[in-house]
Structure formats: structure tokens, C-alpha cells
Amino acid sequence: MAVTDVLNNKGETVSQTELPDAVFNVAVKREVLHEVVTMQLACRRAGSASVKHRGDVTGSTRKLFRQKGTGRARRGDIKSPLLRGGGSVFGPDPRSYSYKVPKKVRRLALKMALSSKFQDRELTVLDDFRIDQIKTKAFVTILNALNKKNVLVVTDRKDENLELSARNFPGAKVLRCDGLNVYDILKYKNLILLESTIKQIEGRLLT
User: Fold this and answer.
1) What are the CB-based long-range contacts (under 8 Å, 24+) for 103-108?
2) How does strand 151-155 pair with strand 172-176?
3) Cα separation, 36 vs 40, whole angstroms
4) Mean pLDDT (whole number) for 33-40
5) Mean pLDDT of the chain
6) What average pLDDT does the segment 30-50 reach?
7) Where do the domains of the chain lie, and which CATH numbers do they carry?
8) Does residue 158 contact residue 91 with C-beta atoms inside 8 Å?
9) What distance in Å separates the CA atoms of residue 196 and residue 59, rounded to the nearest whole number?
10) pLDDT digits (tens, 9 = 90+) for 43-63
């Protein structure tokens, strides 16, 4: 197992902890990460684009004028796609863009994302990230002590003070361990894990 330092809120080393090789020391394959990130982004698409077709437009179905004898082009009702205000022919309808990648591939990609942060020395383990009150300045002070910018902070449980303090700070996100995903890990340059989350991550990925 790899060993890494555990820091406190002031950036001081207080202890060391072991990181399981099966999670934090996996060979990284970019194509696997790309496949899972593409799936995540596709699942986030709203797919709500919509137009009114001929049957959806409000209007009479009466023929506008007789077929022959007027010298004009043949016309049906006022909802014709050829007329202004008529229905659209090939416009989009609401749809779902979501699809699934096999569970084993998703789990492997999460291991690879964590391993890439550890191998690139962009992973930091904290003993605790405690903030006594909801205050963005307190959150920024801790990040400055750690000399970190553009970070994803992973916690083991709900921490309202921490989550609300980080919400107004650009370039940072607080995520609970059960919501850990490949896209967010790769989106932020630095990853901060609370020491207590390592066992949760290990149990999630190795069972």
C-alpha cells in the first residue's frame, strides 16, 4: 500500500495513512475515462428542445380557398408548414440522451480517476475540514494554508457549514463521498479527501 501524509487545516503534517493500491494505484487508461465522462455529460442533458408540429398548432382545419379557379397555389388549412405560423415539419421533440456504461467500467474509471490524482501529486488527505460557522472567508483561509486552488473537497457526511461556505467560492466544490464521480474528480485540478472517506471509498469500490 502507498503511504501519504495527513495534514491539518493549517497545512501541517499530523500523521500518515495508507492508500489501497487497488484503488489509488491503478494503471490509467484515457479511453475508459473518456467513455464514462461522455456518459455522465450525456445523462445531464435536458433533452427538452421542442417545436409545434402541424397537429399541435392552434387553428382551423378549413381549406383556405377552393382548389381550382383562383390562379393561386393549392392550399390546405392554415396550419400548413408552408405558411407563417404553421407547424414545423422536422423540428426536435423532447427526448432522453442518457445511456449506461457497464457497472464494472464505471467502477474502474473511478479508480483510474483517483489514481491519476495520486500519481500526479494532486491528492491531499486532511484529518478534518471543520468550519465553525458559515463563512466563505474561513473556507478560503484553509485553502490558502494548504496552498490549493481549484479543488474538489470530499467529505464523509453532510456538513452544512462547509458546503454553504464553499458554495460562493468559484473554483471549488464540496461533494459527499456517496456522490463521488469521475467527471468532478477530473474537472478540478486538486482533490482533497478527508481521512475518514478513504475507508468509505475502499468499501464502495472493492466490494
Assistant:
1) 105/32, 105/35, 105/36, 106/36, 106/182, 107/205, 108/26, 108/32
2) parallel
3) 6
4) 97
5) 93
6) 96
7) 2-45+99-205 (3.40.1370.10), 47-96 (no CATH)
8) no
9) 64
10) 999 999 999 999 999 999 999
Element (H, E) at 39: helix 30-44
Query: Residue holding cell 486538486?
Result: 190
Residue 127 has pLDDT above 80, yes or no: yes
Say whether 130 sits in a helix, a strand or coil.
Answer: coil
Which of 187, 146, 153, 186 has its CA nearest to residue 167?
153
Enter the pTM of the model: 0.85
Contact (CB, 8 A) for 33 and 114: no
**Residue in this structure with the C-alpha cell 405558411, named with its chain if needed:** 83
* Cell representation of residue 131: 468550519
Please state, in angstroms and rounded to a whole number, the distance separating the CA atoms of residues 132 and 127: 16
What strands, in cross-sheet order, belong to the sheet with 190-194? 13-19, 2-7, 123-126, 190-194, 151-155, 172-176
The 10 Å Cβ neighbour count of residue 194 is 22
Q: Does residue 207 carry a pLDDT above 80?
A: no
